[in-house]
Protein backbone atom coordinates (compact mmCIF):
# COMPACT_ATOMS: atom_id res chain seq x y z
CA UNK A 1 0.00 0.00 0.00
CA UNK A 2 2.85 2.39 0.85
CA UNK A 3 4.40 1.79 -2.56
CA UNK A 4 1.10 2.59 -4.29
CA UNK A 5 0.78 5.82 -2.29
CA UNK A 6 4.32 6.82 -3.22
CA UNK A 7 3.62 6.15 -6.90
CA UNK A 8 0.41 8.20 -6.74
CA UNK A 9 2.27 11.01 -4.99
CA UNK A 10 4.97 11.04 -7.68
CA UNK A 11 2.33 11.05 -10.43
CA UNK A 12 0.46 13.92 -8.77
CA UNK A 13 3.70 15.88 -8.38
CA UNK A 14 4.55 15.34 -12.04
CA UNK A 15 1.05 16.42 -13.11
CA UNK A 16 1.39 19.49 -10.91
CA UNK A 17 4.73 20.37 -12.47
CA UNK A 18 3.26 20.04 -15.97
CA UNK A 19 0.23 22.18 -15.07
CA UNK A 20 2.39 24.85 -13.45
CA UNK A 21 4.80 24.85 -16.40
CA UNK A 22 2.08 25.12 -19.03
CA UNK A 23 0.14 27.67 -17.00
CA UNK A 24 3.25 29.72 -16.34
CA UNK A 25 4.16 29.66 -20.02
CA UNK A 26 0.65 30.81 -20.98
CA UNK A 27 0.84 33.64 -18.44
CA UNK A 28 4.29 34.58 -19.78
CA UNK A 29 3.01 34.78 -23.37
CA UNK A 30 -0.06 36.78 -22.33
CA UNK A 31 2.04 39.19 -20.25
CA UNK A 32 4.47 39.84 -23.10
CA UNK A 33 1.79 40.21 -25.82
CA UNK A 34 1.04 43.71 -27.03
CA UNK A 35 -0.68 44.76 -30.26
CA UNK A 36 0.97 47.59 -32.15
CA UNK A 37 -1.07 50.80 -32.11
CA UNK A 38 -3.38 51.68 -34.99
CA UNK A 39 -2.67 54.77 -37.12
CA UNK A 40 1.06 54.45 -36.46
CA UNK A 41 3.29 56.76 -38.56
CA UNK A 42 6.41 55.01 -39.82
CA UNK A 43 9.74 56.42 -40.88
CA UNK A 44 10.79 56.16 -44.51
CA UNK A 45 14.50 55.50 -44.29
CA UNK A 46 16.84 56.92 -46.98
CA UNK A 47 13.77 58.58 -48.58
CA UNK A 48 14.58 59.59 -52.19
CA UNK A 49 14.01 63.10 -53.54
CA UNK A 50 12.79 62.19 -57.04
CA UNK A 51 9.13 63.06 -57.69
CA UNK A 52 6.51 61.22 -59.73
CA UNK A 53 5.59 62.60 -63.15
CA UNK A 54 2.09 62.10 -64.51
CA UNK A 55 3.19 61.32 -68.07
CA UNK A 56 5.62 58.55 -67.05
CA UNK A 57 5.16 54.77 -66.80
CA UNK A 58 5.91 53.00 -63.51
CA UNK A 59 6.09 49.45 -62.18
CA UNK A 60 5.48 47.66 -58.89
CA UNK A 61 6.10 44.11 -57.69
CA UNK A 62 4.85 42.15 -54.68
CA UNK A 63 6.61 39.08 -53.29
CA UNK A 64 6.00 37.04 -50.14
CA UNK A 65 9.46 35.79 -49.12
CA UNK A 66 8.19 33.18 -46.65
CA UNK A 67 10.94 34.13 -44.14
CA UNK A 68 13.46 32.48 -46.46
CA UNK A 69 12.51 28.96 -45.41
CA UNK A 70 10.58 27.67 -48.39
CA UNK A 71 12.90 25.84 -50.69
CA UNK A 72 10.88 23.60 -53.04
CA UNK A 73 11.24 20.62 -50.68
CA UNK A 74 10.31 22.54 -47.51
CA UNK A 75 6.95 21.86 -45.85
CA UNK A 76 5.34 23.81 -42.99
CA UNK A 77 3.70 22.17 -39.98
CA UNK A 78 0.56 24.35 -40.06
CA UNK A 79 -0.28 23.40 -43.65
CA UNK A 80 -2.64 20.47 -44.14
CA UNK A 81 -4.30 19.08 -47.25
CA UNK A 82 -5.60 16.06 -49.11
CA UNK A 83 -4.55 14.24 -52.23
CA UNK A 84 -7.20 13.51 -54.85
CA UNK A 85 -7.18 9.96 -53.49
CA UNK A 86 -8.32 11.29 -50.12
CA UNK A 87 -4.96 10.69 -48.42
CA UNK A 88 -4.33 13.40 -45.81
CA UNK A 89 -1.13 15.42 -45.97
CA UNK A 90 0.60 17.64 -43.42
CA UNK A 91 3.76 19.74 -43.42
CA UNK A 92 6.75 18.93 -41.23
CA UNK A 93 8.91 21.85 -40.18
CA UNK A 94 8.33 24.64 -37.64
CA UNK A 95 11.32 26.67 -38.73
CA UNK A 96 13.80 26.93 -41.58
CA UNK A 97 16.33 24.13 -41.78
CA UNK A 98 19.41 26.36 -41.59
CA UNK A 99 20.56 29.96 -41.63
CA UNK A 100 22.48 29.40 -44.86
CA UNK A 101 19.31 28.15 -46.57
CA UNK A 102 17.45 31.28 -45.45
CA UNK A 103 20.20 33.51 -46.80
CA UNK A 104 20.42 31.57 -50.07
CA UNK A 105 16.67 31.84 -50.63
CA UNK A 106 16.65 35.52 -49.70
CA UNK A 107 19.47 36.38 -52.11
CA UNK A 108 17.72 34.32 -54.77
CA UNK A 109 14.54 36.34 -54.25
CA UNK A 110 16.57 39.54 -54.40
CA UNK A 111 18.05 38.45 -57.75
CA UNK A 112 14.51 37.93 -59.10
CA UNK A 113 13.53 41.42 -57.97
CA UNK A 114 16.65 42.99 -59.48
CA UNK A 115 15.99 41.36 -62.85
CA UNK A 116 12.56 43.01 -62.91
CA UNK A 117 13.97 46.36 -61.69
CA UNK A 118 10.63 47.81 -60.45
CA UNK A 119 9.99 51.30 -59.12
CA UNK A 120 8.13 50.02 -56.06
CA UNK A 121 8.54 46.78 -54.10
CA UNK A 122 6.11 45.21 -51.63
CA UNK A 123 7.45 42.32 -49.54
CA UNK A 124 5.82 40.10 -46.92
CA UNK A 125 7.23 37.69 -44.32
CA UNK A 126 10.58 39.42 -43.91
CA UNK A 127 12.45 38.36 -40.74
CA UNK A 128 14.94 40.43 -38.78
CA UNK A 129 15.88 38.37 -35.72
CA UNK A 130 13.72 35.27 -35.50
CA UNK A 131 14.35 31.77 -34.24
CA UNK A 132 12.45 30.33 -37.19
CA UNK A 133 14.94 31.84 -39.66
CA UNK A 134 17.99 31.15 -37.47
CA UNK A 135 18.38 34.90 -36.80
CA UNK A 136 19.22 35.72 -40.41
CA UNK A 137 18.52 39.41 -41.03
CA UNK A 138 16.55 39.48 -44.26
CA UNK A 139 15.80 43.17 -43.85
CA UNK A 140 19.49 44.06 -43.97
CA UNK A 141 20.09 41.83 -46.99
CA UNK A 142 17.25 43.59 -48.82
CA UNK A 143 18.19 47.16 -47.93
CA UNK A 144 21.82 46.52 -48.89
CA UNK A 145 20.72 45.19 -52.27
CA UNK A 146 18.35 48.13 -52.91
CA UNK A 147 20.35 50.99 -51.43
CA UNK A 148 18.87 53.58 -53.82
CA UNK A 149 15.32 52.92 -52.59
CA UNK A 150 13.54 54.47 -49.65
CA UNK A 151 11.98 51.87 -47.38
CA UNK A 152 9.83 51.20 -44.35
CA UNK A 153 9.76 48.03 -42.28
CA UNK A 154 6.30 47.23 -40.92
CA UNK A 155 6.22 44.81 -37.99
CA UNK A 156 3.31 42.35 -38.09
CA UNK A 157 4.60 39.28 -36.24
CA UNK A 158 6.30 39.89 -32.91
CA UNK A 159 6.23 37.19 -30.27
CA UNK A 160 8.26 35.68 -27.50
CA UNK A 161 9.37 32.07 -27.77
CA UNK A 162 6.60 29.91 -29.25
CA UNK A 163 7.05 26.28 -28.24
CA UNK A 164 4.99 24.78 -31.06
CA UNK A 165 5.51 22.39 -32.70
CA UNK A 166 7.25 20.63 -29.82
CA UNK A 167 9.62 18.71 -32.13
CA UNK A 168 10.71 21.86 -34.03
CA UNK A 169 9.62 25.02 -32.14
CA UNK A 170 8.80 28.12 -34.17
CA UNK A 171 10.53 30.15 -31.46
CA UNK A 172 10.79 33.90 -31.04
CA UNK A 173 9.58 35.89 -34.05
CA UNK A 174 10.46 39.40 -35.24
CA UNK A 175 8.98 39.70 -38.71
CA UNK A 176 7.05 42.02 -40.95
CA UNK A 177 6.43 43.55 -44.35
CA UNK A 178 8.64 45.94 -46.29
CA UNK A 179 7.69 48.67 -48.74
CA UNK A 180 10.40 50.15 -50.99
CA UNK A 181 10.18 53.15 -53.31
CA UNK A 182 12.43 54.85 -55.85
CA UNK A 183 10.41 58.04 -55.42
CA UNK A 184 9.85 60.39 -52.53
CA UNK A 185 7.23 59.22 -50.06
CA UNK A 186 5.35 62.00 -48.27
CA UNK A 187 3.59 59.80 -45.72
CA UNK A 188 4.00 56.27 -44.33
CA UNK A 189 1.27 54.87 -42.08
CA UNK A 190 0.63 51.50 -40.44
CA UNK A 191 -3.07 50.59 -40.01
CA UNK A 192 -4.02 47.66 -37.78
CA UNK A 193 -6.38 45.04 -39.19
CA UNK A 194 -9.06 43.18 -37.21
CA UNK A 195 -7.79 39.88 -35.76
CA UNK A 196 -9.09 37.37 -33.25
CA UNK A 197 -9.08 38.58 -29.64
CA UNK A 198 -9.23 35.02 -28.26
CA UNK A 199 -6.21 34.79 -25.96
CA UNK A 200 -4.74 31.71 -27.66
CA UNK A 201 -5.41 32.76 -31.26
CA UNK A 202 -3.96 36.24 -30.82
CA UNK A 203 -0.72 34.81 -29.42
CA UNK A 204 -0.12 32.50 -32.36
CA UNK A 205 -1.37 34.68 -35.24
CA UNK A 206 0.20 37.70 -36.90
CA UNK A 207 -0.48 41.24 -35.71
CA UNK A 208 -2.12 41.85 -39.09
CA UNK A 209 -1.85 45.27 -40.66
CA UNK A 210 -1.63 47.21 -43.90
CA UNK A 211 0.95 49.80 -44.88
CA UNK A 212 -0.19 52.98 -46.61
CA UNK A 213 2.32 55.11 -48.53
CA UNK A 214 1.48 58.43 -50.10
CA UNK A 215 3.43 60.00 -52.96
CA UNK A 216 2.61 63.39 -54.45
CA UNK A 217 1.55 63.50 -58.08
CA UNK A 218 0.65 67.03 -59.15
CA UNK A 219 -2.42 68.06 -57.08
CA UNK A 220 -3.25 64.49 -56.07
CA UNK A 221 -1.56 61.52 -54.43
CA UNK A 222 -0.56 58.04 -55.46
CA UNK A 223 -1.66 55.86 -52.55
CA UNK A 224 0.16 52.52 -52.36
CA UNK A 225 -1.14 49.93 -49.89
CA UNK A 226 0.88 46.85 -48.92
CA UNK A 227 -1.33 44.05 -47.55
CA UNK A 228 -0.95 40.61 -45.98
CA UNK A 229 -4.38 39.32 -45.02
CA UNK A 230 -5.28 36.38 -42.78
CA UNK A 231 -5.18 32.79 -44.01
CA UNK A 232 -5.85 30.53 -41.03
CA UNK A 233 -9.21 32.06 -40.04
CA UNK A 234 -11.88 29.40 -39.54
CA UNK A 235 -15.16 30.62 -40.97
CA UNK A 236 -13.47 33.68 -42.50
CA UNK A 237 -14.89 36.05 -39.84
CA UNK A 238 -11.81 38.22 -39.51
CA UNK A 239 -10.93 38.05 -43.19
CA UNK A 240 -14.31 39.65 -43.93
CA UNK A 241 -13.66 42.37 -41.37
CA UNK A 242 -10.24 43.02 -42.89
CA UNK A 243 -11.72 43.38 -46.37
CA UNK A 244 -14.40 45.73 -45.02
CA UNK A 245 -11.75 47.99 -43.47
CA UNK A 246 -9.71 47.97 -46.67
CA UNK A 247 -12.80 48.85 -48.71
CA UNK A 248 -13.58 51.77 -46.40
CA UNK A 249 -10.08 53.12 -47.01
CA UNK A 250 -10.47 52.66 -50.77
CA UNK A 251 -13.76 54.55 -50.77
CA UNK A 252 -12.19 57.43 -48.83
CA UNK A 253 -9.33 57.70 -51.31
CA UNK A 254 -11.73 57.58 -54.25
CA UNK A 255 -13.64 60.55 -52.85
CA UNK A 256 -10.36 62.48 -52.78
CA UNK A 257 -9.68 61.60 -56.42
CA UNK A 258 -6.39 59.89 -55.58
CA UNK A 259 -4.65 57.17 -57.57
CA UNK A 260 -4.69 53.90 -55.62
CA UNK A 261 -2.85 50.58 -55.92
CA UNK A 262 -3.21 47.81 -53.36
CA UNK A 263 -0.69 45.00 -53.61
CA UNK A 264 0.38 42.01 -51.60
CA UNK A 265 -0.60 38.59 -50.34
CA UNK A 266 -4.39 38.54 -50.07
CA UNK A 267 -4.53 34.90 -48.90
CA UNK A 268 -7.63 34.61 -51.12
CA UNK A 269 -8.00 33.38 -54.68
CA UNK A 270 -8.11 36.74 -56.48
CA UNK A 271 -7.98 35.47 -60.08
CA UNK A 272 -10.66 32.77 -60.28
CA UNK A 273 -7.76 30.33 -60.31
CA UNK A 274 -8.84 27.62 -57.85
CA UNK A 275 -9.01 25.05 -60.64
CA UNK A 276 -6.70 26.70 -63.15
CA UNK A 277 -3.57 24.63 -62.56
CA UNK A 278 -2.95 20.91 -62.86
CA UNK A 279 -2.65 19.15 -59.50
CA UNK A 280 -2.91 15.81 -57.70
CA UNK A 281 -4.38 17.52 -54.63
CA UNK A 282 -7.80 18.68 -53.52
CA UNK A 283 -8.56 22.38 -53.05
CA UNK A 284 -7.38 23.28 -49.52
CA UNK A 285 -9.86 24.21 -46.81
CA UNK A 286 -8.17 27.56 -46.07
CA UNK A 287 -8.81 28.95 -49.55
CA UNK A 288 -11.36 31.77 -49.79
CA UNK A 289 -12.27 33.91 -52.78
CA UNK A 290 -12.29 37.58 -53.74
CA UNK A 291 -13.50 39.15 -56.98
CA UNK A 292 -14.31 42.60 -58.34
CA UNK A 293 -17.81 42.29 -56.87
CA UNK A 294 -16.23 42.39 -53.39
CA UNK A 295 -14.60 45.77 -54.09
CA UNK A 296 -16.06 49.29 -54.09
CA UNK A 297 -17.17 50.76 -57.42
CA UNK A 298 -14.24 52.20 -59.29
CA UNK A 299 -11.79 49.45 -58.28
CA UNK A 300 -10.79 46.17 -59.87
CA UNK A 301 -8.24 43.42 -59.50
CA UNK A 302 -5.26 43.53 -61.86
CA UNK A 303 -4.31 39.86 -61.95
CA UNK A 304 -3.60 37.01 -64.31
CA UNK A 305 -3.71 33.24 -63.94
CA UNK A 306 -1.15 32.01 -66.45
CA UNK A 307 1.27 31.45 -63.55
CA UNK A 308 0.30 30.59 -59.95
CA UNK A 309 1.64 32.69 -57.07
CA UNK A 310 1.22 30.31 -54.12
CA UNK A 311 1.86 26.62 -53.56
CA UNK A 312 0.62 24.29 -50.86
CA UNK A 313 3.26 23.73 -48.18
CA UNK A 314 1.76 20.50 -46.84
CA UNK A 315 3.88 18.55 -49.35
CA UNK A 316 7.13 19.20 -51.20
CA UNK A 317 6.66 21.16 -54.42
CA UNK A 318 6.29 19.13 -57.59
CA UNK A 319 5.06 20.92 -60.69
CA UNK A 320 1.58 19.81 -61.82
CA UNK A 321 1.21 17.76 -58.61
CA UNK A 322 1.29 20.22 -55.69
CA UNK A 323 -1.78 22.46 -55.39
CA UNK A 324 -1.19 26.01 -56.65
CA UNK A 325 -3.35 29.13 -56.89
CA UNK A 326 -3.14 32.92 -57.37
CA UNK A 327 -3.38 34.81 -54.07
CA UNK A 328 -0.86 37.60 -54.77
CA UNK A 329 -1.54 40.59 -57.00
CA UNK A 330 -3.04 44.04 -57.16
CA UNK A 331 -6.18 46.14 -56.88
CA UNK A 332 -6.20 49.37 -58.90
CA UNK A 333 -8.46 52.40 -59.01
CA UNK A 334 -10.08 53.26 -62.35
CA UNK A 335 -7.77 56.26 -62.86
CA UNK A 336 -4.83 53.84 -63.09
CA UNK A 337 -4.19 52.40 -66.56
CA UNK A 338 -2.78 48.88 -66.42
CA UNK A 339 -0.16 48.39 -69.13
CA UNK A 340 0.90 44.91 -68.06
CA UNK A 341 -0.02 42.53 -65.27
CA UNK A 342 1.82 39.23 -64.89
CA UNK A 343 3.00 36.67 -62.37
CA UNK A 344 6.67 35.75 -62.57
CA UNK A 345 7.51 32.06 -62.82
CA UNK A 346 10.27 31.07 -60.41
CA UNK A 347 8.97 27.50 -59.95
CA UNK A 348 8.84 28.39 -56.25
CA UNK A 349 12.62 28.15 -56.10
CA UNK A 350 13.05 30.55 -53.16
CA UNK A 351 9.64 30.83 -51.51
CA UNK A 352 6.21 29.23 -51.43
CA UNK A 353 5.12 32.26 -53.49
CA UNK A 354 5.86 33.63 -56.94
CA UNK A 355 6.01 37.42 -57.36
CA UNK A 356 3.28 39.42 -59.09
CA UNK A 357 4.19 42.40 -61.30
CA UNK A 358 2.26 45.44 -62.52
CA UNK A 359 3.23 48.13 -65.02
CA UNK A 360 0.97 51.18 -64.99
CA UNK A 361 0.46 54.83 -65.84
CA UNK A 362 -1.88 57.57 -64.64
CA UNK A 363 -5.02 58.40 -66.59
TrEMBL record:
InterPro entries: Endo/exonu/phosph_ase_sf, Endo/exonuclease/phosphatase, TDP2-like. Residues 110-353 form the Endonuclease/exonuclease/phosphatase domain. One of its GO terms (molecular function) is hydrolase activity. SUPFAM superfamilies: DNase I-like. The keyword DNA damage applies. The keyword Iron-sulfur does not apply. Keywords: DNA damage, DNA repair, Endonuclease, Hydrolase, Magnesium, Membrane, Metal-binding, Nuclease, Transmembrane, Transmembrane helix. The chain crosses the membrane at residues 7-28. It comes from the Bacteria. GO terms for biological process: DNA repair. Its cofactor is Mg(2+); Mn(2+). PANTHER family: TRAF AND TNF RECEPTOR-ASSOCIATED PROTEIN, TYROSYL-DNA PHOSPHODIESTERASE 2. This is Endonuclease/exonuclease/phosphatase family protein.
Amino acid sequence: MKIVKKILLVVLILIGIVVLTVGGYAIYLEATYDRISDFLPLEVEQNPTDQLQKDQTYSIITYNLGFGAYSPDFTFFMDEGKMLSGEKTKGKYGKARSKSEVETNTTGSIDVLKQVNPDFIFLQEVDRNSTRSHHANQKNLITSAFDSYGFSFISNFHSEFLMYPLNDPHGRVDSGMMSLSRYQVSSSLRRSLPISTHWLNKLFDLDRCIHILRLKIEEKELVLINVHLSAYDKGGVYRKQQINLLNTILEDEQEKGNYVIVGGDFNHDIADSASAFKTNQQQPDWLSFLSNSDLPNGYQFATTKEVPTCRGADVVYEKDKTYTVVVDGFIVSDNIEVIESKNIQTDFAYSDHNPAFLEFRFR
